[in-house]
Amino acid sequence: MTQPGRFITLEGGEGAGKSTNLSFVRDYLQAHGIRVVTTREPGGTPTAERIRALLLAGDDSDPLDDLAELLLVFAGRAQHLARVIRPALARGEWVVSDRFTDATFAYQGSARGIASERIALLEQFVQQGLTPELTLWLDMPIAHAADRLAARGGERDRFERERSDFFERVRQGYRARAEQAPERIVAVDAAQPLEQVQRDIAVLLDQQIASWT
User: Fold this and answer.
1) Which residue, 5, 81, 107, 134, shows the most beta carbons closer than 10 Å to its own?
2) Is 183 marked as binding a ligand?
C-alpha cells in the first residue's frame, strides 16, 4: 500500500529566504529517502504561472483591484491543486511549496484588508479541506527584510514595491495565523545566519519524519 504523501509549506514576507530554504528542505528530505515535489504559489503549473505573471507585473493604466487579485490567487491555486499537489500526494510523495493559503490570509487579508471570512469561503470551496500538515514561517523584522531586498538588487515586482507598512501588516497576518494554528505553523527566526536557520529547520524536519514514517 502506498504511504500517504505529506504537505509542507514555507511562508514569510519578501526577502525571508523561502526559495533558498525550499531547496534545503527538498535536499534534506531526499537525503532521508523521501520522494519530494517542490513547487510554488502563485504558480506551479504553466497556467498558474501565467496567473502569477499577471499578479506580479502590475499595470499603472489598469491597477489590479484587490478582489480581482484575491480571485486570481485562488484560480491559480485551483489549477495547482488539480495538476500538481493532489496527484503528488496520491502517489505518496511529499509536496513542499513556497507559499500556500496562509500567504493569502496575510497578503490579501491582513495587508489588503479583505475580510478573512471571505477568504475562508474560497479556501473551503477550492481546497475542500486540504491544508498543509507543517508550515515553516520564516519570520524576520521588516527592516531586515528590506535590507535583503535592497542588497538583492534588480527590478522589483508589484508586491516588492509596496511600502513598509504593507509588509508590517503581512507580518502581523502571519503572526495571527500562527497563533490560530500553533500545532501546524512553526515560526523560524529567519534573521539568523543561514546556517543556523537551516539547523533549526532540520530539527523540525527530523521531528516530522519521525512522527510520519
Assistant:
1) 107
2) no
**155 assigned to a ligand binding site:** no
The annotation status of 16 as a binding-site residue, yes or no, is yes
pLDDT at 1: 54
Checking if the pLDDT of 123 tops 60, the result is: yes
173 is in an annotated binding site: no
Residue 113 among known ligand-binding residues: no
Q: Checking phi first, is residue 17 left (phi over 0); if not, alpha (psi -120 to 50) or beta?
A: left
pLDDT single digits (tens) 45-81: 999 999 999 999 977 778 899 999 999 999 999 999 9
Class of residue 189 by CB neighbours under 10 A (exposed 0-12, middle 13-18, buried 19+): exposed
Range of the domain at 145: 6-212
